[in-house]
Structures are given as structure tokens and as C-alpha cells.
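agent> Task received from the user: take the single chain below, predict its 3D structure, and emit C-alpha cells. No templates, no multimer pairing.
agent> Plan: (1) validate residues, (2) run structure prediction, (3) serialize to C-alpha cells, (4) report one or two observations.
agent> Step 1 OK, no nonstandard residues flagged.
tool_call: predict_structure(input=
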Amino acid sequence: MADNDILRISIAIDEVKQMPAVSLAFIGDAVYDLYIRNLFVSRYPRAKSNKLNAMKVKCVNAAMQAKIARALLPLLSEEEEAVLRRGRNAKMATMAKNATVGDYKYATGFEALIGYLHVGGCNARLAEVLALAFAECQRVHNFDKFNEGVRGEAVKTK
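)
tool_result: status=success, residues=158
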């Protein structure tokens, strides 16, 4: 593994297809969270962490991830849709405190899809799906209203 591949994992796709959906969701949750964090840090490199976190939380929560999953459905291949459905239908050991059962299940499906693409080494498709996911979050929350302030903080514009 090269130094620039420190976060890369690649398992044969036949093996990935046999992984439990909740395991795919486990890694998918981390991949999506890190993607969103990287995106906001790169856009607002001098912003305070509380501002970055406030924006991140708007994208990384069950309700938003459920909206993303529903928006992505028509854009997914049959195989990707099957992974999302497996994640959505997986038996859950826990539930989110601030989400409906339906939203939590769709969010888990979305995370399973992200995990499947990541672990399966489908890097180009993963990048495409993550960009589509952020575009949906952007559509809902309009992060364009934020820009670099005098001290590099993310601030609302008039």
C-alpha cells in the first residue's frame, strides 16, 4: 500500500457482495463523514471547528442521508440499488435518537452503498456518488450563503 493510499481498502467484489450490509454501512458512515469534513475544510481552511461542524452536521445526519438516498435511487445501477436496499432492510441493533425509523433505514442504505463502493475499490463511482450526495445536501441547505470571512471563518452573507 502506497503512502497516498493509506485510507484505501480493496476487497474482491465477490467478497464485498457477501459482506453484511451493516458492515458496509459501518465503513460507509466513516467514508461519507470524512468526505464531508474534507470538503468543508478545503472550502474554509481557516474556519473555526464549531463552524465547520455546524455545516457538517447538516449533511451527516439520518434525515439528510435519507433524502440523499431517495434522490440517488433513479441514478443507481441495479447492483447499487440492491446494495442500498440491503442496507435499508438490514436488522438494526440501534436507532438514531433524532430520526424516524424510515429515515434511519434509508440512511443506513446510503451508508452501505458508500461502503460497498469504497471497499470494492470503485473509486471513480464512489467519487461520483459522493459528489451527487453533496449536491443534494447543497440543494437543501444552500451552503453558497457561506463564504470566507475576514479571518477565514465561514460566515453568512447578507
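agent> Step 4: summary for the user.
The chain has seven helices and two strands.
agent> Done.
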